[in-house]
Amino acid sequence: MNNCHECVTCKSADKVLESFIAQLPLETSHHRVESQKLKCGFGLQGVCCRLCANGPCRITPNSPRGVCGANSDVIVVRNFLRAVAAGSGCYIHVVENTARNLKQTALAKGELRGLNTLERLCDLLGVTGADSYEKALNVAEAILTDIYRPDFEQMQLVQKIAYPPRYQNWQKLGILPGGAKSEVFSGLVKSSTNLNSDPVDMLVTCLRLGISTGLYGLLLTNLLNDVLLGEPKIRIAPVGLRVIDPAYINILITGHQHSLFAHLQNRLMQDDVTKRANEAGAKGFRLVGCTCVGQDLQLRGAHYEGLFEGHAGNNYASEAILATGAIDVVLSEFNCTLPGIEPICESLKIKQICLDSVAKKANAELKEFVFKERELITNEIINETLETYKTRRPEIALNLLAEHGNDNTLTGVSEGTLKEFLGGSWKPLVDLIASGQIKGVAAVVGCSNLVAGGYDVLTVELTKELIAKDILVLTAGCSSGGIENCNLMTLEAAEMAGPNLKSVCQSLGIPPVLNFGPCLAIGRLETVAVELAKVLNVDLPQLPLVLSAPQWLEEQALADGSFGLALGLPLHLGLPPFITGSKVAVKILTEDMKQLTGGQFIINSDAKESANILESIIIEKRKALNI
Question: What is the mean pLDDT of residues 191-198?
């Protein structure tokens, strides 16, 4: 490994972590930002096409068309559609696997931890059954049947899941999606060489993909996980690198598919497995949360006390987490697992195991999750983890960061637990908004990246600006990891809020930023928005509610963004999604979309300016509602 004591690292909102990374004798993504700071101007604008052998073609004022004749609008939107389709495919992969696991659990009469959510799903989808297992089976079958439909056959559950005014808008625009997997297929076909050259038509396809992504990949995945793994519970918990206890055998989990290691986590809590850890010289096994699946575990941490240590950090904290030397195995099952962890794992003799071939790492062992083989897979992982612990720990020096993060972050917030906290009704929150004590709601969601000011810089600074304006912030995604490690989800953070929001937080005993968990929890936020709209008897675009994905990172975020546009909500992005080379794309996404769905993209990389823009939108919505 490189000795990076003298390397330049990127700026970070998390100063404790920034100092730690700067002194590491290991190269991380935070070091590589400097060497990659020169960006391709064609790529940034989205005007580079490499779909055929005549290319790559790059559009300039002197060369306004590619060899085939495609202009900047076609090339930009084609690239954008391809990214949205890929991002949608990732989410649909997750909901498909989760539904399959629920189906197989029901057939095997395995444990169902969230029976209240199961009943909620049955009511939502119009499903019945003689007992809980039959109900779970029928729920899973209904979802799988829908996502496997062809693209020319509308999914049957959309009307049951969607907020009726939104459904009517989508029906009017002709953007109701067909089968979710087929929609991904059609999006990729449509964006191929010498096929679609209508940028408007391709952007309409993005909206269809956004709807299927949001309702199935986001909203339904959360509910399925709640049935399988237990419903969230509000509690105070530790976060940051401080959660890593070297007295235990530590498994770092990364990805988005919590149900893939449910059997493993249950076994790790059993006495005979703990005894084996004791015999190896450890107190037991612990799971350390990282990326979105760590946030998902954190939501349900009350169900796994003694096993789940806490959420250490988001995707770009993973290298630092490994650098502590106290992680023995990385268990990954989906994205946000950086390729950059591979040389660090090799250097520190950390074993890598992948549970899903889509996330296979170069130096990792693939143990593809198969439900019927779950006991064998679990036993193999436990055996190999024990051997790794026994061989590596005597040889690896620890480099812990016990001062990172905090011990008092509020976690376990969901659409269910928040409503319960409010007394079983959304009216108290609506009343606080109507009275002006809470000016509005901002959902700060999505990824973490190392640009837009540095690691989580724009995300954290924007959040601070928003709460100072008496705007309640709800979070979901890797952004949550950065915000919580910067202490904004503690009760003490109320001191940073504006006077009205501060008073609300202190009287209710809540922080000004509420963490809904992983990026999948954007679906939970949609549910909250719908519930608020129902109380006010308005459509979603009328709510004093705004979205921001200040440091979006990957294609899944663009699928999320397309869902936000379809919902009719204003969506702020700190960086443009490689569309600025097309006047048509920019105009439709930032202006014309408001007349179609009510949504729009707002691009701004300055925290204060962005907060002012979002506040002005909230004030405008309040005036329209006469509040």
Answer: 96
